[in-house]
Amino acid sequence: xxxxxxxxxxxxxxxxxxxxxxxxxxxxxxxxxxxxxxxxxxxxxxxxxxxxxxxxxxxxxxxxxxxxxxxxxxxxxxxxxxxxxxxxxxxxxxxxxxxxxxxxxxxxxxxxxxxxxxxxxxxxxxxxxxxxxxxxxxxxxxxxxxxxxxxxxxxxxxxxxxxxxxxxxxxxxxxxxxxxxxxxxxxxxxxxxxxxxxxxxxxxxxxxxxxxxxxxxxxxxxxxxxxxxxxxxxxxxxxxxx
Length: 242
Fold this sequence. Notes:
seven-stranded mixed β-sheet
């Protein structure tokens, strides 16, 4: 992968960046995404943020090698510390855990007043991001799920709006599995959740067979509830009853 040829994962993130956006790519690593967007004349400017010295230096080198120092500024800092209020209108955060992404957004909330779009790609725990969006006035407007090199990724796109709009009375299932993804239920989506279901059932069985310890009870209840939600989401409950 390089700034000419992105991974499928980052190319999916890129397609949701509005034309002419001023973006901040948080955890930019090699700055491949902002370089790609700049070279395709899709953005006005970019800030590539990185908290680790090695990737920061790599991003600086790549931006310089591509001749894009006028359009892309590489900054070192933690999360949204790298941007000032009003500097950007679109933020991308890709390749981290959902809980970490939600924490980055929470810690930098004051920087989001002029941001119109968030494009977020968690490696795990997308539910953490959906909950944060719901609680902070951001409306989930689209979701995509892809598989690349044997790994499954979700991409979440949000804008300021009505955070409750994508959800209905099955909100627990939708927060876990994704309201847009649930409606589509493509093959990658089904593969992900059948694998998760199998894993959770295996863990639950191990806990069940272990000596009954009080500390395992909350974990078992949580697992059983998630198993129930996934079965309902995939309509497996009806299949089992029929």
